[in-house]
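Customer escalation, tier 2.

The customer says the design service returned an amino acid string that "doesn't look like it belongs to this structure." They asked us to rerun it and document both sides in this ticket. The original structure tokens are below, unchanged.
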């Protein structure tokens, strides 16, 4: 779907559907909606009264213009209450409207710029929210549907604005949304793909092509190489897998950079639990255990366009967590890249093992800051559900910046404490550490384990409880959310 910007009047553009809007409770709209209503001899106001359309956020009303009108259909998108209105509401209204467009099989769509009228928000911000909401609401993973069940896609959406002085700002906002939208939908695709497609080798190929397209450096180490380097925890997780594991790195450098950021993503392409085997219900959907990897790969696609003034090292230790003749056993002891020994008392807590070595590798690369994203614990899902992800770390400024980066693209983050008191539980009788401990606070304990390998480097860890939805949400249809990619893009835009 192409998103564009056009100067002109909404009443005159030939299209399959034109989207206008309405605040909750308004019966006689002004602005662009009012102008269209006038051109339709009051058809919109009449239908608002007839149907008692309330303008609730995300709800739509479909109006049929007379034959010969430039737009074949009119969609009135509810904006909700004026008092609650902001960028996230714009995104949700745009997402609701584009779903309606798909339903009526509209290929060429034009839309009003939500929020720039009486709400008076800056045009650039409104354009970004309108465009990003459109992209996220339109997204569906239909690659494996055949025939009629493959739903029609919207071909193009143009934001149409009368005022020529606003066009440059709108174009700027739309371009930002194109960049985040691409990163997020790319991550969604990778997560929605099943694990028989997304193998570690596949992720390595994805990384190579991202690097090639954006002028970045990519390197991939195989099992022998990273084992020889000393990544004993990563190697241990990979032992049960017949698909070859890969240590994937992408580097971006900027001549004016004053610091280097590591973006580390959990890349478990399928998590069976290993010999600490998951039951069928918990195992189903564990293809999404590479959501962290999807987020950092999505963000690296954006880096070439953003050109942030920082250096970036992206790291994904990709493997399946499987069972097999060589798989590790609960109770096995391995040596990590940092030199610390670890008793693996639960093979299902594999993410922290791969991440512990990945962050230690980031430290070897001399980074100044580490951000890791991982579907690390079911405990975080229990605590926050699938609409909010957890964030834990050692650097409050970094955490605050990531929380506010997330807010700008409707990715909600809630901070949990890195409570040192729980560290004692990770002591092993026979090694320096063990990978799990009882006593609740599973998300915090998982983070504390990773922290043991981060050392003093400023660090934030995102435990991605929000990564997949089983029901349609305002900004995502059923399936992967692509959570984290948007937050990282927003964060990197601050360095542009
Ligand atoms: N990938 C899972 C975490 C997970 C589970 C994320 C469900 C989202 C939904 C992770 O590898 C895992 O299995 N963690 C264990 C840790 C436990 C053994 C300490 C968990 O959460 O049960
Ligand atoms: Zn697991
Ligand atoms: Zn896992």
């Amino acid at each position: 779907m192409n998103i564009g910007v056009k100067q002109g009047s909404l009443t005159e553009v030939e299209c399959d559907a034109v989207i206008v809007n309405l605040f909750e409770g308004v019966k006689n709209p002004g602005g662009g909606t009012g102008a269209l209503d006038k051109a339709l001899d009051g058809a919109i106001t009449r239908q608002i009264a007839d149907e008692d359309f309330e303008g609730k956020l995300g709800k739509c009303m479909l109006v049929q213009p007379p034959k010969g009108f430039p737009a074949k259909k009119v969609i009135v998108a509810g904006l909700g209450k004026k008092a609650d209105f902001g960028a996230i509401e714009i995104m949700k209204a745009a997402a609701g409207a584009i779903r309606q467009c798909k339903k009526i099989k509209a290929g060429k769509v034009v839309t009003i710029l939500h929020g720039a009228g009486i709400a008076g928000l800056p045009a650039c911000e409104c354009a970004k929210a309108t465009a990003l909401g459109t992209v996220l609401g339109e997204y569906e993973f239909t690659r494996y549907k055949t025939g009629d069940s493959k739903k029609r896609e919207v071909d193009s959406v143009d934001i149409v604005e009368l005022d020529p002085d606003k066009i440059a700002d709108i174009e700027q906002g739309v371009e930002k949304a194109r960049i985040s939208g691409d990163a997020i939908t790319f991550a969604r695709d990778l997560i929605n793909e099943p694990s028989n497609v997304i193998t570690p080798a596949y992720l390595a190929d994805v990384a190579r092509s991202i690097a090639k397209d954006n002028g970045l450096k990519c390197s991939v180490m195989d099992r022998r190489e990273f084992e020889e380097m000393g990544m004993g925890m990563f190697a241990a997780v990979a032992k049960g897998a017949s698909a070859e594991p890969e240590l994937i790195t992408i580097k971006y450098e900027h001549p004016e950079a004053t610091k280097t950021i590591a973006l580390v993503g959990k890349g478990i392409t399928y998590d069976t639990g290993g010999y600490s085997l998951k039951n069928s219900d918990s195992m189903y959907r564990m293809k999404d255990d590479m959501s962290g990897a999807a987020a950092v790969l999505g963000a690296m696609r954006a880096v070439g366009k953003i050109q942030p003034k920082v250096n970036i090292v992206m790291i994904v230790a990709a493997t399946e967590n499987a069972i097999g003749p060589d798989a590790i056993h609960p109770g096995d002891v391995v040596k990590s890249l940092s030199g610390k020994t670890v008793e693996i008392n639960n093979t299902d807590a594999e993410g922290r093992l791969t991440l512990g070595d990945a962050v230690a590798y980031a430290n070897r690369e001399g980074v100044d800051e580490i951000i890791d994203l991982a579907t690390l614990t079911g405990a975080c899902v229990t605590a926050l559900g699938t609409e909010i992800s957890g964030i834990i770390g050692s650097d409050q400024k970094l955490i605050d910046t990531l929380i506010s980066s997330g807010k700008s693209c409707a990715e909600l983050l809630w901070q949990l404490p890195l409570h040192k008191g729980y560290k004692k539980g990770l002591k092993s009788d026979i090694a320096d550490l063990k990978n799990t401990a009882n006593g609740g606070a599973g998300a915090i304990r998982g983070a504390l384990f990773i922290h043991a390998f981060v050392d003093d480097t400023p660090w934030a860890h995102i435990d991605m409880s929000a990564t997949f939805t089983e029901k349609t949400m305002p900004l995502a249809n059923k399936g992967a959310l692509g959570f984290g990619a948007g937050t990282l893009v927003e964060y990197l835009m601050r360095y542009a």
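Tier 2 assessment: The sequence is consistent with the input. The first strand starts at residue 2 and ends at 7. The CA atoms of residues 191 and 288 lie 5 Å apart. Sent an explanation to the customer and offered a walkthrough call.
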